[in-house]
Amino acid sequence: MSTWTKERLHEIATTDDLHIAPFREDGTTTGTPTWIWSVVVDGDLYVRAYNGTSSRWYRAASKQKAGQITAAGKTNDVTFEQVQGEVNDQIDAAYRLKYASSPYLNPMIGDRARAATVRILPKS
């Protein structure tokens, strides 16, 4: 399993411009990039779907398990892993810290978005 370099993870963690583009059915063409919030917890990159598991990008990421992200001016090929369990509490805390002033914070730490939590790993 591949991991982010400290430098790249820091670039992603300190920006607010992550766009996610899971692959389409063909496994090589990405869908339209979607702007999304991201957080870093214990050296891992996480995102959530605001609209939960019915979100188009989330459904594609869950099915295809790969795609691309663009953040801090760079594009990376990535894989997606669904996340459940106690790490969600740490992810909530990271969202609270990074997006404290946003009116969208509560939905992003609510049950609907928590059910659509994804860990993003660089493709090896």
Notes on the structure:
The protein is an alpha+beta fold and 124 residues long. It has one domain: Roll (Pnp Oxidase, Chain A), CATH 2.30.110.10. The chain is built from five helices and seven strands. The chain has helices at residues 6-13, 56-64, 87-98, 105-108, 111-114, and strands at 19-22, 34-35, 38-41, 44-48, 66-71, 74-82, 117-122. A seven-stranded antiparallel beta sheet has the order 2-1-5-6-7-4-3. A hairpin with a 2-residue loop joins strand 5 and strand 6. The mean pLDDT is 96. This is DUF2255 family protein. It comes from Granulicella cerasi. InterPro entries: UCP028498.
Layout of secondary structure:
Layout: H1 6-13, E1 19-22, E2 34-35, E3 38-41, E4 44-48, H2 56-64, E5 66-71, E6 74-82, H3 87-98, H4 105-108, H5 111-114, E7 117-122
Antiparallel strand pairs: 1-2, 1-5, 3-4, 4-7, 5-6, 6-7
Protein name: DUF2255 family protein
Could you list some keywords that capture this structure?
124 residues, alpha+beta, 7-stranded antiparallel sheet, 30% helix, 29% strand, globular, UCP028498, DUF2255 family protein
Outline:
By secondary structure, the chain is of the alpha+beta class. 30% of the residues lie in helices and 29% in strands. It is globular, with a radius of gyration of 13 Å.
Count of domain modules: 1
Strand order, sheet with most strands: 2-1-5-6-7-4-3
- Summarize the helix and strand pattern as letters: HEEEEHEEHHHE
Helix content: 25-40%
Tell me the β content.
25-35%
The CATH homology group name:
Electron Transport, Fmn-binding Protein, Chain A
Number of helices: 5
**Main pleated sheet:** 7 strands, antiparallel
Would you count the extended β strands for me?
7
- Which residues sit in consecutive blocks of at least 5 with pLDDT less than 50? none
Q: Which CATH class applies here?
A: Mainly Beta
Q: What is the terminal separation in angstroms? A: 7 Å
The CATH architecture can be given as: Roll
Q: Structural class of the helices, strands and pairings?
A: alpha+beta
Average pLDDT number: 96
Quick one: overall form? globular
Any idea what the radius of gyration is?
13 Å
CATH topology-level name: Pnp Oxidase, Chain A
Organism: Granulicella cerasi
Pfam family, one: DUF2255
Protein name: DUF2255 family protein
InterPro entries: UCP028498
